[in-house]
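Hello Y.,

Per our agreement to keep a running log of every chain we model this quarter, I'm adding this entry. I've kept the format consistent with earlier entries: sequence first, then predicted structure.
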Amino acid sequence: MDSTHPIRRRIQCLAVGFFCLFAAYKASEQLQTSVNRSSGYVCLLVIYSCLALSSLFAPWVVAKVGTKSLLWASSLPYVVITASYLLPKNDTLLSISCYAVGIAASTLWTSQGEYVGKCSLLMSKSTGIALTDCTSDLNATFFAIFSASGALSLLFASVVMNLLDNSLTVLFTVLTILGAVGVVLLALLPPPESHRSSNVAESLTRVFLASKRTDGAEAPQPEAEDKGILALGPADAEEESAAVNAGEESGRAPHQSLPDFHFMVRFLATDLRMRYMIPVMLVDGARMGFFIGAFMEQVVSGLLGVTYVATVGFISSVVTVIASVCWRKLVLNPTLGRRTAFLISFILQAIWFAFYAIWCQRRLGQGSRQDVDPIQEQLGNASAGVESGDPQDVSSSMSDLVIILSGCIINAVMEPVWNSFLRATLQVYFCDSTQLPCAMSSFFVFTSVGFAIQQGISLMFSGQLVAQCVILFFFSVAAGASMLYLHLYVCSIDLREDCEAEKVESS
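Predicted structure for the entry above:
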């Protein structure tokens, strides 16, 4: 049997759990600004603001509670916010759910990133494959499966919303059940330290014992058969991790066992590699916020109708799955690597914003649809038409559909690079056991800040898509320049074994 099979199987199980959970959540997220109007923007702003703030403390929480326990516990608010759509429209309940999701997302995704990072490190040590390739491989595998969740939920949402009168009740009942299944799967996930797959009974026993464990209790030791850094004791693990990092200092004081808030702040403020990654993560969050926020509301819903939101989201998710597989093959080619993927994506992103700045200036200036959508009637928003700078009613054309779908496809092609390989790069740069959760949390700190800033811009420049596209275009160019400088003068993006001995000094 392939020695990497148990590790790949573990990542696949993790991805299936996230698949079920986010198949439930993504439909509600995509529909936020389309069905809830301004309150949808506020909800997204709250979620990503809370995610940014709570991510500063997430490394300490993950180290204290444990990766495996937090994976399932942090997923519960996602099920709650999906189920909230089954109740009568209540802004208070929606706000509470948004706060809960924002806080839980920090520990959920930090745990996910650390889980994949540890598995990548274990795979590299057990097979001799470069850590760069292991992180690219496992992250691409995870996101290929995970991205399909959007395709499934949005296809189901599109069919239900177009065929059934009481569509929202049916839609969110099924999605809530699916989300609950995802929570169970994450609870049964085996720990990253073990090479063996666990059966259901063993997993349930571990979950029960973990819930009963006191703060002073000693954590169970890994199986004797487990090899590699993750099976070593704390002192040996730190020594071995330093060897993997080729002598790079972890930045942790000898007496400090957990990455607390002060360590996190010092890590963000002093590490030179992280400093040049921050603009990239900010723009990634802003791009995502623009696409599922202003673009979905004013372009997709405004010109095509709100029922097309789910259809467009489905097409984007399918393309993302296919793109994940293709990008994986590209980055595993040593001649091309991740640097080529980032270069192509930065160019596409700049062209994307430049094109829509020009197109929106011409097309949206003519007016947009004023039809009352049946989904809005179900939500009590029947009087809320799509605002436009011109009161005249202009029907959408086939060219609008082609241009909008083309833009969604290009955005979906870029998605795996930002979601998968940006995290993979951080997992290679910061594979130390203390720095890894900090790096994963940092990703969500800055992508969430970028997302929240974009939602604020969407509220301030409501209906002014041209201004938003121009701002994001220049931000994208600046982020590309920052990553280019990082790759050429600070530390290679494709950090392989022949250059892992290079120590990156923090200023």
